[in-house]
Structure formats: C-alpha cells, structure tokens
Amino acid sequence: MTKTITTTALAALIAGATALPSAAEEWRGWNIHPEDYPNGVALESFAEMVAERTEGRIEPQVYHNGVLGAQPDAIEQLRNGGLDFANFNMGPMGQIVSATNVLSLPFLFTDLDNMHEVMDGEIGDRFADALAEEGIIALSWFDSGARSFYNTERAINTPADLDGLKFRVMNNDLYVQMVDQLGGNATPMAYSEVYQSLSTGVIDGAENNWPSFDTSNHFEVAGFYSNTNHLILPECICISADTWESVSDEDKEIVREAAVAAAEEQRELWADSSEESRQKVMDAGVQVNDVEDPAAFQEAMQPIYDQFIENNPDLESFINDIRATQS
Ligand code: GTR
C-alpha cells in the first residue's frame, strides 16, 4: 500500500471539502414516489432552495421510490432521528397522531378546493399542532387528489359490487372499517407489495388517485377503475422535531418558505399529472366508470362517523369546523 497521496486525489479531496462547508448538515429525506412524480419534483425543488438559500449550511438529500422503507416505518424513523424530512400522506399518520384520523373519514371534503381551504387555514394549523406534539413538524400541504377503487374483476357502481372482493388499504383501521361497511374485504399492506399481490390474486383491488394508479403500474393488472372519490387526503412536507430544533431561527424561516414554495409547485404539477395519468391508463385499456349511485357510498359511511365520534369525542369539533367551511 502506498503512503503517498497523488495530486489528483489531493485535488479531489480539496474540491470535496470546498463543495460542502464543514458545518453543513446533510438531511435525509423520504419519498415513496419516483423522482418525476409531482411530489418528487417538488421535493427536489425544496432541497435545492434550502441548500442554496442557507448557502450550504443544510444539504437536503431526497431518497425516492421508497428505498428508505415503507411509510409507517418512515414515520417512526422521522420521529426517532433516522430521517430528517419526508413527504407523508395523512392516511397512515392516523395510527400515530389520532387527530389526523379526522382526515381519513371518507367523503369528509367536498373537493380539492375545500381541502386546500381547510388545510391552509386555522384548522390546518391545528392539525400541524397535533403533529408537532408527536415530533413531526408539518411545514406545508401537498395534494393527492381523490382516491377511488380499482380492481381486476368488474366495474363498481354500487356498494354491492364490492361483495366478495379483497382490497388492499393503507395502514389505518379506519380504511378496514370503510371497506367492511361497503361489503368488501380489506387487508392493510405496504404500497410496494400491491403490484405483486394484484398479479398473483392475493388481492383483487386497491384504491388510489390517478398518478399513483399509473406510476405504480397497478393499471397493468387491475383493469377497472371506478370513480368513488371516497378520500381526499392532504400530504405534508414534514421535518423531524429534533432536526427542526437543531437549526437557527434564520434557517427555520428559509426551510419553511422553501416548503411552502415547493407545495405551490406540487399543486400546480398535480392537476396536469392527474389528467395525463388518467388519459394514459385509459389508452392502455383500463375501463373507467363514474359510479351509478354515489349517495349510497356516502350513506354507508355514517356508522363510521358515529363510532368515530363516540370513540373520539374531543375530535368532533374538527369535523364540525370542517363541515362549517362547506355551508
Ligand atoms: C399515494 C400516496 C402515498 C401512499 C400511497 C399508498 O397516493 O401519495 O404517500 O400513501 O398512496 O397507497 O400507500
């Protein structure tokens, strides 16, 4: 082994040293989606803005495609220091921060505009406070459209059409109840396992928005997509509380502004991306239908609301306040 250092190696070392100031904090960021999905694009913009505006004091690095683990694990990692930031869906968050379960009540929001109005205002701040109590700092809210059921067997028009079908749901008991109430069977499962499970018949269907149905390739194996639009879930750019507390007030401001700007970009990209994905899966032969009886799906959810309020009386005000934005 040689003990001398070549000039090229030395130059590389110096270049490396100048690229990252010695005080640079490297932040690990989790993204379940591909880099070119609206969320991936916006997270990259966030990382770039933060690095640039903090002059390299913070260097966020986004790991795409869920390579750092499934969402429930990633939420835990963010809380115990394994991750610094992430784009989380509020669905699986309910298992940790019970107030966010309100957002998983089916047909809660009337449309995307209603969700924006709520999350960008005082009610959204209350959800952020509840998250902060569990070590999760939500800085801005992304879109994830509306989720609908898709399956390998048939078009769904009424709840009776779910009978005998097994659907993958995200990790949250409320989704198991939701599918039960509609007469189907539900099984919680990691997103990364759905494609294989659909292909092998372990499950018959799942539910998601257009961009996820497309980029996960589920449309290749599940040929029926039925517009139930049962869940409009916000997603966040969230930072670990430990990471957040470790930065100066000046850098907190930079990070917050970058997160808000990234969410604006994500929402703009979302609308186009949804339409492109819808078109793409239809061109690929997926049979898409509007359900014949949308009211029947909503009515079937009443027992879930009743039980939820009975079990969480302290959260009833959230529901009422959201309803008040709709009148
Ligand atoms: C997507 C969402 C992901 C993940 C996924 C799933 O729409 O953006 O965060 O929750 O759905 O179904 O697991």
Explained architecture:
- There is one protein chain.
- Helix 2 runs antiparallel to helix 11 (249-283).
- This protein has 327 residues and is α/β, with parallel strands linked by helices.
- It has 14 helices and 11 strands.
- The strands form 3 sheets. It has a 5-stranded mixed beta sheet, sandwiched between helices. Strands 8-5-9-11 form a 4-stranded mixed beta sheet. Strands 6-7 form a two-stranded parallel sheet.
- The protein folds into 2 domains: 23-143 and 233-276, D-Maltodextrin-Binding Protein, domain 2 (3-Layer(aba) Sandwich), CATH 3.40.190; 146-232 and 287-324, D-Maltodextrin-Binding Protein, domain 2, CATH 3.40.190.170.
- It has helices at 7-19, 38-53, 71-79, 90-93, 112-119, 122-133, 173-182, 194-200, 210-215, 241-245, 249-283, 294-299, 302-311, 316-324; strands at residues 25-30, 58-63, 85-89, 136-142, 147-151, 166-169, 185-188, 205-208, 224-231, 235-240, 287-290.
- The model is unreliable at 15-19 (pLDDT under 50).
- Strand 1 (25-30), helix 2 (38-53) and strand 2 (58-63) form a beta-alpha-beta unit.
- Beta-D-galactopyranuronic acid (GTR) is lined by residues 32, 71, 89, 91, 144, 170, 191, 208-209, 212, 235.
